[in-house]
Amino acid sequence: MSNRTLLEIKNLVTEFHTEAGRVKAVNDVSITLNKGETIGIVGESGSGKSVTSLSVMRLIPNPPGKITGGEILFHSKNGVIDLVQSTKKEMRNYRGNEIAMIFQEPMTSLNPVYSCGDQVAEAIMLHQKINKREAKNLTIKLFEQVELPRPGAIYDSYPHQISGGQKQRVMIAMAMSCNPSILIADEPTTALDVTVQKTILELMLKLQQEQDMGIMFITHDLGVIAELADKVVVMYKGKIVEQGNVMDIFTNPQHPYTKGLLACRPPLNRRLQWLPTVSDFMTIDDNGVMHETNKSVAEVTNSLVVTPAETAKKHETLYQQEPILEIKNLKTHFPINSGLFGKAKEFVKAVDGVSFEVYPGETLGLVGESGCGKTTLGRTILKLIEPTKGEIIFEGKDLTDLSSKEMRAYRKEMQIIFQDPYSSLNPRITIGEAIMEPMRVHKVFNNDDERKARVMELLKRVSLLEEHFYRYPHEFSGGQRQRICIARSLALNPKFIICDESVSALDVSVQAQVLNLLNELKEEFKFTYIFISHDLSVVKFMSDRMIVMQEGKVVELGLADEIYANPETAYTKELIDAIPKGEINDIRASIAKKKDNLELA
Amino acid sequence: MFQFILKRILYGFLVLAGVVTVVFLLFNVLPGDPARQLMGQRADEESIRIIQKDLGLDQPLSKQFVMYINDLAPISVHDKDPDHYLYLDAEKYDYSELFSYGASSVVVYKAPYLRRSYQTKRKVSEIIKDYMLETAVLALASIIIAALLGVLFGVISALRKDTWIDRALLFISILGMSVPSFFSAILISYFFGYVITDITGLNMTGTLFEFDNLGDNELLRLDNLILPALTLGVRPISAIMQLTRSSMLDVMSQDYIRTARAKGLKFKTVVIKHALKNALNPVVTAISGMFASLLAGALFVESIFGWKGIGWVLFDALTKFDMPIIMGGVLLTATIFVFINILVDITYGILDPRVRVK
After folding, report:
1. CA–CA min distance A377, chain B (Å)
2. What is the pLDDT of residues A528-575, one digit of tens each?
3. Cross-chain residue pair B354–A109, CB shorter than 8 Å
4. A404/A289 Cα distance (integer angstroms)
5. Nearest to residue A555, comparing CAs of A547, A563, A544?
6. Contact residues on chain A for B263, CB-CB shorter than 8 A
7. Which residue of B has its CA nearest to A103?
8. DSSP secondary structure letter of residue B191
9. Chain A residues within 8 A of B260 when measuring between CB atoms
């Protein structure tokens, strides 16, 4: 233990009371954090990484949760304190003052009824005992520091008036407001666009070096922290399975789970048949015993590579066909400013003159930042939103001419899988009913018995069990729910499926499984996909061709590999640069850079 | 903001126009001759005819409707010719002339004319004016009691979820919701005003202003307010409590509450400043609806406690089929609802910046 030690978590155990009995969400976890150091805590949802951080803040919801063992030693200016034993009043004094936290969801982490500035100033006034005017000046200075545009105006803005990235900057300003010695960041960039993520990560790194803070960075994606973290802790089912410095973890992972996490990120420099998953490295038998497969990351990925020649051959046959879908000069405008009698004066041009074709059996990727109109485009193609202008020609028939009754026949052919598997399933309808409903509507099969048999088949096809037919959505994890949504869209035997950010809400490890499933199904049922995502790496992995969208317009359209290799517009370049790649050379460079900065200081 | 309010007021007028039409049609299809009711069974044909002319009953329904609308409108068109069906009768209207046109037509500005009671021959608008104060005082008192206690109990219940306090409060609130007001009125009046009247010093019945024993001075009797206000508050308290409870439970699990706690704020500050302001939106809607219906008069409770308010008048009018008063009461209720709804929309804007119009 050196005098730079900030926080020592020793043998921490945090338990939750559930219907199934007591569950150890965090089981015997020990982590040491030093000044000026960043520790990345990595794991999938439910691995206990967030619970660990909330335990440090003593913000575990009680009941049902409780810290039942271990100690959390905080080396404060006034000596070493065990946070587990601290009183509520002492804890309040540390929270926001010595130990600050940034949360995953900037959208919901700010109180909607108070202005951004007030919420930051509140923390300052609380801990620094200064008056409102000084607090306001300090807040505006902080807003400048976190590089918010027009700090004065943002001070008076309400959270709904600013963007997600700006909200996260406000959260960071709030966390930094009292110069904390420890900053806990719980998936601070997961809900943000890659380009925004990049700037936020750079900002955190800069602030850390200025203030010699210790950062605990929690994430499900190893790539995100590659260039940020000094040490990495990998958690699995409440336990630490591996920890070490970032270089060792990336070059020589020991635990099969770590290998799985490293391998399951869609690679950018080559094309794979499918993505390796954790199960390529380890299997768990019925008794819960883990078996390693003893393969290295490189072995597994190398066996899956598709050569450019193979890809070219596939594309040759693909693009000789007649297109299944043609979009011609499609426009979707939304009225914003309506006058006294509801007549629109101004419009948001969400989709503004888009044209492209989709060929049978192809996956067309659609990538762009949030607000670029990609989701609106997807929904307009299905006429879930009425287009303002343009043609949507599906198998030679212009869908814009059809009445909603005629359109219904085509709905069977075209399906959509939504982003959020949590809210796109009705919580009061069983899984089986949810999948069966579209079949009933479109009178597929003669009776419910036949339909039920089909649902059972579909459930098995997406790796769920027949007995899940009678269960309700809340009993499933995010990945399982997305499988249910996939099964539901398969129920009608569609030809054409739009995947709208279908894996964005999932952990990388689960994302890989769902992407693989989508690809298998495509081969099996000869689907055509439009795959929409803000994540260029995922889109590149999935698609044959891709479209880059910006402000409702197509800025680039071409073969995915070519666009990635030779981006023509600055916007595409920016998107590609912002992807956290987690490559060894980048990590090495960032470590060297950090060292330089330290020596300079 | 101004445009927003203007829009709401325009919508309000549309709603009122709808109500007026429906009320007019409903009461015209009901059986019974108003002239007969006004004059009694032994009236002679001649006076019946005069009354019918006065009420416009000799006119076709369309003209009657025009008359009715014209009577209600604050700015209306009339004729100085006594035979004209829109005759500007000084007996009916309390007006000031704006301008005249044509031979004998005038446009006037006036208070809405709601016709006269069949029973007392008094103008309905005067009757409403006389009794409105008592009802307003009662409604205000009970809604304040209900809002304060309801929100307080709701917050306590939410913060102590699944403890005995929560269960007890929930049980009582369900009880409060399920007891009809005429029953609780009798119970409360009997118990507090009779059984333990020596301790409470309250009467079973009584009104806001009473004459002293000599009948000379009118006295303000606020103590008479306590029991009816409490009775009327029983249901709102229960409803507000349950709403606040569920709303608070929802808000307390939000991410921004965690943020507030991570700042190191006191739990009390987190609850009152960060949670309650968010939780109050649905409660405000509920309170406004309840307040509006209380303002329209509580028929049973006012009758049982002998509280001389709109409810009491309406109860009386209903039993005697006094159409103008009933119609006036319905219009009053509708107006109050429309008005309160506009107020609520403005309150929303104050509570929640997200609904504020840019």
Report:
1. 27
2. 999 998 888 889 889 999 999 988 889 999 888 888 888 899 999 988
3. no
4. 54
5. A547
6. 95-96, 122-123, 126, 174
7. B259
8. I
9. 111
- Nearest one of B300, B298, B334 to B140, comparing CA atoms: B298
Mean pLDDT along residues B291-310: 83
Residue type, B196: I
| DSSP string across A306-332 | EPHHHHHHHHHHHTTSPPSEEEEEEEE
pLDDT at residue A487 is higher than 60: yes
Q: Cβ(A83)–Cβ(A91) under 8 Å?
A: yes
The tokens describing A109, both together, are 């982490």
pLDDT for position B358: 43
| DSSP secondary structure of A185-209 | EESTTTTS-HHHHHHHHHHHHHHHH
Contact B255 A122 (CB under 8 A): no
* Dist CA B7 CA A342 (whole Å): 10
| pLDDT tens, position by position, B124-178 | 888 888 888 888 888 899 999 999 999 999 999 998 888 899 999 999 999 988 8
Task: Answer whether A504's CB lies under 8 Å from A535's CB.
Answer: yes
Distance CA A588, CA A248 (A): 11
Query: Distance, in angstroms, between A338 CA and closest chain B CA?
Result: 11
Q: Is the dihedral of CA A398, A401, A404, A409 positive or negative?
A: negative
H-state helical runs in chain B:
2-29, 34-39, 45-55, 61-72, 124-159, 164-178, 181-190, 197-200, 223-252, 255-262, 267-269, 277-295, 299-305, 310-319, 323-351
Compute and round to an integer the Cα radius of gyration of chain A.
Answer: 26
Strand bridging mode A182-186 / A21-34:
unpaired
Pick from A57, A111, A171: CB nearest B274: A111
pLDDT at position B304 is 86
Please tell me the distance from the alpha carbon of residue B269 to that of residue B278, in angstroms, as a whole number.
13
**Encoded tokens for A532:** 């929409």
The pLDDT of A45-49, averaged and rounded, is: 82
pLDDT above 50: residue A504: yes
Whole-angstrom Cα distance, residue A177 to residue A346?
Answer: 39
pLDDT in tens, A267-287: 888 888 888 888 788 877 777
CA B330, CA B339: separation in Å to the nearest integer? 14
What phi, psi does A66 have (nearest 5°)?
Answer: -160, 140
The alpha carbon of residue B43 is apart from the nearest alpha carbon of chain A, in Å, by 54
- Supply B329's token pair: 């009461």
pLDDT tens-digit map of A217-250:
998 888 888 878 889 999 988 888 888 888 888 8
How far does A11 lie from chain B, in Å, by closest CA?
23
Separation CA A107–CA A8 (nearest Å): 32
**Interval B116-138: pLDDT, tens:** 887 788 888 888 888 888 888 88
Contact B151, B240 (CB under 8 A): yes
Q: Which residues of B touch A (CB under 8 A)?
A: 3, 6-7, 254-256, 258-267, 274, 277-278, 351-354
User: Is residue A58 scored above 80 in pLDDT?
Assistant: yes
Neighbours of B303 (CB within 10 A): 19
pLDDT score for B167: 93
The total of other beta-carbon atoms located within 10 Å of residue A400's CB is 16
DSSP A473: G
Phi, psi (deg, nearest 5) at residue A335: -70, 140
d(CA B185, CA B191): 10
Yes or no, beta carbons of B262 and A112 under 8 Å apart: no
| DSSP state at residue A95 | B
- Flag if A96 and B264 touch (Cβ within 8 Å): yes
pLDDT exceeds cutoff 60 at A341: no
